């Protein structure tokens, strides 16, 4: 009976559906009510859960467990509602917005306004963030942001997941360090193959980067680190730090403008070497010395104000500058908590 709801497509492209966003009283979408299901009147007991919400039974009929059972919070009981933020990191297939507090997902309560929305063919599928694969090896397609894997350790307000893509946007309105965001893995790696399909922005002063570091914020001066960095123009810098000692910078001049399209950035890290590739072309190999400490895998985008000699003067004329990631794939990896 209920299984028909999981794969139903709502064909209403020519009609207008009035949606009172502040009154999603028991379902996450309009589909159940259009099919004749109502909210439960006398029970808060959950008998079944699916993409449309929490289901109870009254008079031998299915009904939606109302949000009043959870203080008006539509994402309960699985996730709390946000208490101190209305910033949306992710919008699911039913139009519900998700925020992040204390590095955990929370549901954003809709504003109490009335709007008219044109609906189109919609396939309903599981939209709550899920975790697949083991803790070291996985593929992130950014249909959501899996906080079992990632930690937003700087500038979370600058980061968003939208349309199956990860966005880290630099602008003067972003309060993050360097007016951008930084996201790292929850585990530290010792080896593996790491692939990132990404489109990096270019502007004077701007530094989008894909890198590894043994400390979460690069502040203790004794970190191991190796990286891809675009440095203010279409120049790719690679570097290696061992216990805080660098001085191994090399600059690669790509044959094409890396900001015009997506490219594949790869690290192949074994016990003998680390090979850095762009679109399967080897651009740098580290083999002596090698990192001595496990490292977080990190995505970041920031404006280096005052770094004129390195990246050029900060240019805000075309902000925001979006670092866009299509996917991250990690295989053959070893890691530690």
Automatic annotation (TrEMBL):
<keyword id="KW-0326">Glycosidase</keyword>
<feature type="domain" description="GH16">
    <location>
        <begin position="121"/>
        <end position="336"/>
    </location>
</feature>
<feature type="active site" description="Proton donor">
    <location>
        <position position="229"/>
    </location>
</feature>
<dbReference type="InterPro" id="IPR002883">
    <property type="entry name" value="CBM10/Dockerin_dom"/>
</dbReference>
<feature type="domain" description="CBM10">
    <location>
        <begin position="29"/>
        <end position="66"/>
    </location>
</feature>
<dbReference type="Pfam" id="PF00722">
    <property type="entry name" value="Glyco_hydro_16"/>
</dbReference>
<dbReference type="GO" id="GO:0004553">
    <property type="term" value="F:hydrolase activity, hydrolyzing O-glycosyl compounds"/>
</dbReference>
<dbReference type="InterPro" id="IPR013320">
    <property type="entry name" value="ConA-like_dom_sf"/>
</dbReference>
<dbReference type="InterPro" id="IPR009034">
    <property type="entry name" value="Dockerin_dom_fun_sf"/>
</dbReference>
<feature type="domain" description="CBM10">
    <location>
        <begin position="68"/>
        <end position="109"/>
    </location>
</feature>
<feature type="signal peptide">
    <location>
        <begin position="1"/>
        <end position="19"/>
    </location>
</feature>
<dbReference type="GO" id="GO:0005975">
    <property type="term" value="P:carbohydrate metabolic process"/>
</dbReference>
<feature type="active site" description="Nucleophile">
    <location>
        <position position="225"/>
    </location>
</feature>
<keyword id="KW-0677">Repeat</keyword>
<keyword id="KW-0378">Hydrolase</keyword>
<keyword id="KW-0732">Signal</keyword>
<dbReference type="InterPro" id="IPR000757">
    <property type="entry name" value="Beta-glucanase-like"/>
</dbReference>
<dbReference type="InterPro" id="IPR044791">
    <property type="entry name" value="Beta-glucanase/XTH"/>
</dbReference>
<protein>
    <submittedName>
        <fullName>Concanavalin A-like lectin/glucanase</fullName>
    </submittedName>
</protein>
<dbReference type="Pfam" id="PF02013">
    <property type="entry name" value="CBM_10"/>
</dbReference>
<keyword id="KW-0430">Lectin</keyword>
<dbReference type="InterPro" id="IPR008264">
    <property type="entry name" value="Beta_glucanase"/>
</dbReference>
<dbReference type="GO" id="GO:0030246">
    <property type="term" value="F:carbohydrate binding"/>
</dbReference>
């Amino acid at each position: 009976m209920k299984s028909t709801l999981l794969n139903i497509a709502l064909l209403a492209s020519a009609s207008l559906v009035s949606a009172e966003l502040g009154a999603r009283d028991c379902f996450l979408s309009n589909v159940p009510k259009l099919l004749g299901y109502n909210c439960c009147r006398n029970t808060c007991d959950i008998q079944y859960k699916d993409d449309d919400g929490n289901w109870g039974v009254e008079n031998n009929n299915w009904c939606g467990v109302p949000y009043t059972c959870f203080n008006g919070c539509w994402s309960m009981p699985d996730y709390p509602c946000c208490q101190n933020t209305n910033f949306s990191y992710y919008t699911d297939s039913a139009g519900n917005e998700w925020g992040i507090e204390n590095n955990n997902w929370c549901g954003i309560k809709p504003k109490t306004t009335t709007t008219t929305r044109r609906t189109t063919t919609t396939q309903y599928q599981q939209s709550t963030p899920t975790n697949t694969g083991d803790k070291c090896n996985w593929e992130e397609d950014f249909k959501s942001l899996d906080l079992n894997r990632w930690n937003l350790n700087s500038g979370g307000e600058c980061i968003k997941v939208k349309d199956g893509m990860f966005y880290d946007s630099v602008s003067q309105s972003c309060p993050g360090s360097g007016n951008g965001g930084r996201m790292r893995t929850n585990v530290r790696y010792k080896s593996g193959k790491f692939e990132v399909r990404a489109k990096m922005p270019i502007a004077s002063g701007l530094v989008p980067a894909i890198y590894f570091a043994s400390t979460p914020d690069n502040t203790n001066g004794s970190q191991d680190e190796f990286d891809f960095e675009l440095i203010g123009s279409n120049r790719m810098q690679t570097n290696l730090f061992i216990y805080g000692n660098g001085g191994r910078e090399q600059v690669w001049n790509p044959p094409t403008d890396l900001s015009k399209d997506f490219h594949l950035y790869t690290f192949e890290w074994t016990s003998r070497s680390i090979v850095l590739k762009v679109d399967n072309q080897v651009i740098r190999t580290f083999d002596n010395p090698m990192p001595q400490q496990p490292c977080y895998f990190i995505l970041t985008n920031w404006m280096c104000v005052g770094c004129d000699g390195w990246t050029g003067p900060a240019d805000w004329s075309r902000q925001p500058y979006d670092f866009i990631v299509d996917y991250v794939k990690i295989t053959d990896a070893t890691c530690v908590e």
